[in-house]
Amino acid sequence: MEQYQAPSYGDGTAPISGATLTRFHIGPIPVRIELPFFLVAVLLGLTGRQSVMLLLGWTVAVFISVLVHELGHAVVGRLYGSPTSIVLHAMGGLTFRNGGRYPSVREDILISLAGSVTQIVLLGIPAYVITHNNPMLFFTSYGWYVFLWDLMWVSLGWGIINLLPILPLDGGNIAITLLRRTRIDEPDRVARLLSVVTALGLAIWLYSAIGWMGALWALFFAVWNVVPLTKRGI
């Protein structure tokens, strides 16, 4: 979860693309969805899906999984005294802290971990159990089987990938938080170098797993970290 104030909208979320598709509340937590979120989800799902319905199922699985991930951040953030809000955008999701008490280092790490843990426990593991213990589902309800398989893949895959030490993902935020508590010179620079190397490795793996769109998605994070490294003082 990004730990900064972002009051550009009334709900506390900052504009990413500015192309707001819809907004709603889940309990006290405002949620805003930008159109590029669904566009990227569709592009990522084009490979290997033979029908519009299967592509729609993939897109719904991505939406549910990413939203649950961000809700994990938002709920734990609120438990630690910070009002939170969520935006889903082209590169995934962000949970914003809107005032309140600033979390301690321990709380900050737990908030960062909460997204992936929630996503894996509530969605990834149950979907895995259902798809691997009900082989007849493939024959009796192929559409539901593919949907649950996609939900499993996204929830476990994104949950784990998001814990990699890549800024601005949760694992990157945890890494930079821990590095700043060491005696390493220039911890921010080290965190960004680590992010670049990890993102490049991820891009290679995603290219082999889901194709060029996945690789481009990972390369974005590599470039995002390279740019600050070229600036003086970073």
Overall description:
With 234 residues, this protein is an alpha+beta fold. It folds into 2 domains: 1-162, no CATH class; 164-234, no CATH class. It is built from 8 helices and 4 strands; from the N terminus they run E-E-H-H-E-E-H-H-H-H-H-H. A 4-stranded mixed beta sheet has the order 1-2-3-4. A hairpin with a 2-residue loop joins strand 1 (20-26) and strand 2. The longest helix has 29 residues, at 105-133. It is globular and about 60 Å long. Residues 1-13 have low confidence and may be disordered.
Tag the structure with descriptive keywords.
234 residues; 62% helix; globular; alpha+beta; 8 helices; disordered N terminus
Contiguous runs where pLDDT drops below 50 for at least 5 residues: 1-13
- Tell me the helix content: 55-70%
Strand ordering within the main sheet? 1-2-3-4
Number of individual domains:
2
Mean pLDDT across the residues is 85
| Structure summary, number of beta strands | 4
Structural class: alpha+beta
- Multimeric status of the protein: single chain
Q: Give the number of helices.
A: 8
Q: What would you call the shape?
A: globular
> What is the CA-based Rg, rounded?
18 Å
User: What is the element string, with H for helices and E for strands?
Assistant: EEHHEEHHHHHH
